[in-house]
């Protein structure tokens, strides 16, 4: 009789405060045969705190090519395995995503154990629009690739979420300001820890702040998207000009105030504002 394959659990771990560990995560980490950890020394401290004695195996960026297939083989043989990163959800800015891809390809069941995550924690408390957002994580270290990536997102209307280290935060804020201009921005540091802090302002004011105040701790940056360009003519999918009323309503649906939308459409169509206003009343 063939052995049933095991399950790969993606186990979230605290990003600072140990009280953010879930009951479910503690139970699963206690029950699986093996825990694949980004840093076994770091994870061993966490397991010790919760009196968990499951065997550890290192799985990180530098050994994922060889260690990944080894873990898959154990799963195929019937072992249940949990993968953890040093903090937060595995698979976000770490090689956990590679292991998941291998598991899915091998027909292994993958179960996420939700929990702490720096990107979402910073985003929901930032005060910046959360309706639509893009997670960009750590920027490329190569200057050319970094500039190309930022340029490709310069016109996105979506809020952007970045991760950054304390020794690079000032340079990154300066670069973001150079590419995006003065956007609303929030720097969240030491999330869930004793010295948790949210610094709110613009990319420029944040750059000034950390020039005057030595940055410490890991950062999550939230940057507002590009505002709608009111000087751009609005057309339908068929490239036919919208009615005045529909053009004003379309702008308002993007968050533009009615007065500003009327002014923008009047300018676009070279019409008196009163005429555009009257059309919206009709």
Features:
282 residues, alpha/beta, Cobalt-precorrin-4 Transmethylase, domain 1, Methyltransferase, Cobalt-precorrin-4 Transmethylase, Domain 2, five-stranded parallel beta sheet, five-stranded mixed beta sheet, 11 helices, 18% strand
List the helices and strands and how they pair.
Blueprint: E1 7-11, H1 23-31, E2 34-37, H2 40-49, E3 56-58, H3 64-76, E4 81-84, H4 96-105, E5 109-113, H5 118-126, E6 133-138, H6 143-152, E7 159-164, H7 169-180, E8 184-189, E9 197-202, H8 203-212, E10 219-223, H9 244-253, H10 258-268, H11 273-281
Parallel strand pairs: 1-4, 1-5, 2-3, 2-4, 6-7
Antiparallel strand pairs: 7-10, 8-9, 8-10
Helix pairs in contact: 3-4, 7-8, 9-10, 9-11, 10-11
Describe the protein.
By secondary structure, the protein is of the alpha/beta class. The chain has three domains: 7-116, Cobalt-precorrin-4 Transmethylase, domain 1 (3-Layer(aba) Sandwich); 119-223, Tetrapyrrole methylase, C-terminal domain (Methyltransferase, Cobalt-precorrin-4 Transmethylase, Domain 2, 2-Layer Sandwich); 244-281, no CATH class. The protein has eleven helices and ten strands. The chain has helices at residues 23-31, 40-49, 64-76, 96-105, 118-126, 143-152, 169-180, 203-212, 244-253, 258-268, 273-281, and strands at 7-11, 34-37, 56-58, 81-84, 109-113, 133-138, 159-164, 184-189, 197-202, 219-223. Helix 2 (40-49) links the parallel strand 2 (34-37) and strand 3 (56-58). The longest helix is centred in the first third of the chain and has 13 residues, at 64-76. The radius of gyration is 24 Å and the shape is elongated.
């Amino acid at each position: 009789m063939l052995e049933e394959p095991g399950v790969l659990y993606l186990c979230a771990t605290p990003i600072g405060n140990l009280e953010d560990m879930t009951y479910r995560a503690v139970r699963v980490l206690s029950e699986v045969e093996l825990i694949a950890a980004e840093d076994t020394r770091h994870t061993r401290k966490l397991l010790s705190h919760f009196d968990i004695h499951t065997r550890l195996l290192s799985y990180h960026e530098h050994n994922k090519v060889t260690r990944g297939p080894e873990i898959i083989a154990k799963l195929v043989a019937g072992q249940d395995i949990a993968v953890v990163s040093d903090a937060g959800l595995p698979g976000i800015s770490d090689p956990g995503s590679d292991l998941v891809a291998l598991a899915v390809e091998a027909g292994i069941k993958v179960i996420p154990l939700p929990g702490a995550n720096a990107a979402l924690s910073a985003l929901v408390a930032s005060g910046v629009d959360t309706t639509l957002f893009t997670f960009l994580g750590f920027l490329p270290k190569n200057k050319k690739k970094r500039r190309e990536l930022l340029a490709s997102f310069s016109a996105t209307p979506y809020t952007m979420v970045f991760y950054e280290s304390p020794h690079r935060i000032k340079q990154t804020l300066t670069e973001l300001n150079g590419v995006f201009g003065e956007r609303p921005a929030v720097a969240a540091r030491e999330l869930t820890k004793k010295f948790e802090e949210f610094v709110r302002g613009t990319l420029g004011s944040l750059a000034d702040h950390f020039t005057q105040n030595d940055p410490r701790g890991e950062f999550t940056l939230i940057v507002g998207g590009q505002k709608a360009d009111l000087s751009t003519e609005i057309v339908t999918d068929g490239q036919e000009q919208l009615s005045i009323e529909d053009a004003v309503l379309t702008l308002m649906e993007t968050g533009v105030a009615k007065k500003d939308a009327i002014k923008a459409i009047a300018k676009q169509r070279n019409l008196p504002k009163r005429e555009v206003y009257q059309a919206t009343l009709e």
